[in-house]
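Team,

Forwarding the record for the chain on the shared tracking sheet. I've put the sequence and predicted structure together so nobody has to dig through attachments.
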Amino acid sequence: GITPDVLAFYFVFYAISGLFQHSNADLRLGPLNYVFSGPEVHRWHHSRMISESNNNYAHSFVVWDLVFGTYFRPKSRVVENLGLLDPEYPSGFWRQLYAPFRRVARDMT
């Protein structure tokens, strides 16, 4: 089985990777963009253009995006507008936690 040390390392790596990936750092990884999903690659996943945001799902390593054809990183430009398309999407922490259930609650009434 998996030892507690390996599990702890995984969760620490996963958390740091997610924070790094979603940071506003202008860090260029060069050829390592084909290995790691850093801010330069993952930022495209948060584009307001659906054709761009339906890509780069990988959390830490981009291997599955490369395998399934969802890797997207145009070299000739940077991502323009980031964010959600829904202007009424909640901005508070607790409201965001509830957000996935909004549609279900509306549909039930």
